[in-house]
């Protein structure tokens, strides 16, 4: 993109003439207002406990006392029956990695089939999956949990046996996979449909079978779309509370950080020094991902919501 | 302490590694079988291998549970006896649940409208601005923060100090004291507390609206905007007459997307007030009924009511997609 398109140069000109300082000022003010709450969390988390409780966080700038004790305390010191945050941090990672890999893999497969195979009922399946995107999680929670705990038995025939996986990561992974699939399939399908027909047909003529075609053509071409969805699903899983809470079955050894943080707020036993440090530990990973890969994230959002 | 930490983490780490390896091995094996099979077999195998897993998971994990929840909403708390519409009568007649429904309606009205309006304003203000990306990033940032994290952040902003002799450490109440207003217990006083919770979700969703709408504005043809400028249209008129009509479709998409997210929100209410002080919403009450009271009948009914709320949106979306496909 070394040369500007005619419309872009025109845009630039219009920009110079019409950008109003009032509008810019207002936008800056809103951006500052939007950032203050998060910023105050960060500042508070690095102040000593006595300072936090005796003065507002803004006094930090006139009386800068820095202490990392809060982080030390929240990360490595447990409270009674509760393990320290480090354990939950690990759980968040262990919950998130498979919950991102599984649905993306299955979704690329399904999107490939729906975009390139010709068969009856294809549109029906595609539209159903599209509609499933907005089904509230709440509608499936209890039966899905019972399915994990008791299996699926109709009459005397056992369709799915009780799996005995309650209290491990596995139900959380499966639940996230299921809930992530509709959007993933929809996004990837839209993307794969844009691959030119000729490419597919040429490969067929060359004798490529459906499986080599997938690994040789589809997979390399869909890397950008996969990257977009990856960030999407990562943020969604890492930040999720409901699935971790219900499918984690209350087990402390698998609960993600969001569950622990919500619990800490609820019990009130934890003061601001632990809450702010704990909250920051839980938001720092998504924030890094967000700022590093914002471009791909935006691309994914646009593909998902701006049609055409 | 660090040693015992490792003791709980080690088996979990093993499970993680084994599961990932097993998943990779299964996929690899399926591909091996698929690509070695005869052409005739491959014709069938490809459906099973590529489409099968996703369709099966969605059938067993989404469609079957949804239908079962619908059935459970007509049964009693243990799903043993048929009770007809009793649970629905309960949902629409008990005063506590009416507050829950009222609050949910407030959320669904205010969050989409306000965040879309602010997002639209920022998108328009920054549309022709140099170096707007920093501003946009900052406003967009809350999208990366979990609802629980946002709840902690905002609980701190709303913090109320009951002891008058101690300084306010919450930003809003410190400002209130500073200008001589009586500090407010933001999360306690109904019905205003609901609006303070709503503000948290608006804070999160505005960035989303801004990003999507900003991209749509970039697609408005420059000729159209210039023509309006030459006609001497003011900024405001240009926005109402030119920009807004041209991005109407996107505005609708943003509104519906935020509406769906708002209907399902429960983390904020659960974390900040626990649904107390008349701030409860359907999604949180559904959780409470199903997982605390263990009343599956009433919990399922609330889930179904949530679903009924999104049906018009599903219908509209499918229709739009159909139209789009026939246009191509």
Provide an overview of this structure.
The complex is a heterodimer of chains A (308) and B (328). Chain A has two domains: 1-77, no CATH class; 78-305, MetI-like (MetI-like fold, Orthogonal Bundle). Chain A is built from 14 helices and two strands. Chain A has helices at residues 6-18, 21-45, 49-54, 69-76, 85-116, 122-132, 141-150, 170-193, 197-205, 210-221, 223-239, 242-247, 257-267, 272-305; strands at residues 152-154, 157-160. A two-stranded antiparallel ribbon of chain A has the order 1-2. In chain A, helix 8 (170-193) runs antiparallel to helix 11. Chain A is globular. Chain B folds into two domains: 2-72; 86-327, Orthogonal Bundle (MetI-like fold). In chain B, helix 8 (192-218) packs antiparallel against helix 11 (248-263). At the A-B interface, helix 1, helix 2, helix 3, helix 5 and helix 6 of A face helix 1, helix 2, helix 4, helix 5 and helix 6 of B.
Which descriptors would you attach to this protein?
heterodimer, A: 308 residues, mainly alpha, two-stranded antiparallel ribbon, 2% strand, globular, B: 328 residues, MetI-like fold
Name the helicity range of chain A: over 70%
Major sheet of chain A: size, sense and barrel closure? 2 strands, antiparallel
Note the run of SSEs of chain B as H and E.
HHHHHHHHHHHHHH
Structural class of chain A: mainly alpha
Concise description?
With 308 residues, chain A is mainly alpha-helical.
């Amino acid at each position: 993109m070394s040369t500007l398109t005619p419309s872009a140069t025109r845009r630039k000109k219009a920009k110079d003439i019409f950008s109003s300082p009032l509008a810019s000022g207002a936008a800056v003010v809103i951006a500052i207002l939007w950032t203050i709450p998060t910023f105050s969390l960060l500042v508070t988390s690095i102040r000593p406990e006595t300072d936090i409780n005796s003065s507002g966080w803004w006094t930090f700038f006139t009386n800068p006392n820095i202490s990392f004790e809060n982080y030390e305390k929240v990360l490595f010191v447990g409270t009674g029956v509760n393990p320290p945050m480090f354990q939950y941090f690990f759980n968040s990672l262990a919950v998130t990695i498979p919950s991102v890999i599984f649905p993306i893999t299955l979704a690329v497969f399904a999107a490939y089939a729906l975009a390139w195979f010709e068969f009856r009922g294809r549109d029906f399946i595609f539209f159903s999956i599209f509609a499933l995107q907005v089904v509230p999680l709440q509608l499936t929670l209890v039966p899905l949990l019972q399915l994990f705990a008791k299996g699926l038995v109709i009459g005397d025939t056992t369709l799915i046996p009780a799996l005995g996986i309650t209290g491990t990561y596995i139900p959380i992974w499966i639940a996230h996979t299921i809930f992530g699939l509709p959007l993933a399939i929809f996004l990837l399908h839209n993307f794969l449909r844009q691959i030119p027909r000729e490419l597919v047909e040429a490969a067929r003529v060359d004798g490529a079978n459906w499986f080599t075609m997938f690994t040789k053509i589809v997979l390399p071409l869909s890397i950008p779309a996969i990257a977009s969805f990856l960030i999407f699903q990562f943020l969604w899983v890492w930040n999720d509370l409901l699935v971790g809470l219900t499918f984690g079955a209350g087990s402390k050894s698998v609960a993600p950080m969001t569950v622990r943080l919500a619990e800490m707020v609820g019990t009130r036993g934890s003061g601001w020094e632990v809450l702010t440090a704990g909250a920051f530990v839980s938001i720092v990973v998504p924030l890094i991902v967000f700022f590093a890969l914002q471009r791909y994230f935006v691309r994914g959002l646009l593909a998902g919501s701006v049609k055409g | 302490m660090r040693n015992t930490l490792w003791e709980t983490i080690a088996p979990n780490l093993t499970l993680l590694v084994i599961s990932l390896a097993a998943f990779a091995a299964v996929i690899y094996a399926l591909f091996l079988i698929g690509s070695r099979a005869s052409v005739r077999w491959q014709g069938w195998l490809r459906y099973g291998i590529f489409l099968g897993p996703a369709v099966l998971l969605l059938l067993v994990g989404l469609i079957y549970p949804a239908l079962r929840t619908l059935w459970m909403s007509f049964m009693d708390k243990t799903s043993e006896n048929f009770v007809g519409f009793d649970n629905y009568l309960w949902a629409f007649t008990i005063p506590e649940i009416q507050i829950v429904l009222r609050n949910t309606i407030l959320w669904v009205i205010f969050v989409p409208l306000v965040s879309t309006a602010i997002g639209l304003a920022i998108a328009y203000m920054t549309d022709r601005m140099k170096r707007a990306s920093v501003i946009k990033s900052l406003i967009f940032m809350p999208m990366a923060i979990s609802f629980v994290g946002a709840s902690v952040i905002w609980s701190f902003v709303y913090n109320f100090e009951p002891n008058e002799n101690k300084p306010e450490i919450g930003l809003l109440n410190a400002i209130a004291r500073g200008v001589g207003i009586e500090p407010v217990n933001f999360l306690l006083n109904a019905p205003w507390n609901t609006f303070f919770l709503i503000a948290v979700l608006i804070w999160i969703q505005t960035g989303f609206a801004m990003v999507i709408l900003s991209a749509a504005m970039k697609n408005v043809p420059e000729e159209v905007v210039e023509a309006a400028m030459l006609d001497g249209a003011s900024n405001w008129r240009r926005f109402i007459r030119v920009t807004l009509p041209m991005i109407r479709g996107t505005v609708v998409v943003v509104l519906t997307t935020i509406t769906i997210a708002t209907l399902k929100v429960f983390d904020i209410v659960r974390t900040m007030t626990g649904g107390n002080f008349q701030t409860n919403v359907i999604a949180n009450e559904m959780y409470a009924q199903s997982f605390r009271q263990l009343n599956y009948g009433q919990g399922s009914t609330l889930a179904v009511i949530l679903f009924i709320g999104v049906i018009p949106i599903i219908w509209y979306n499918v229709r739009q997609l159909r139209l789009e496909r026939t246009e191509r």
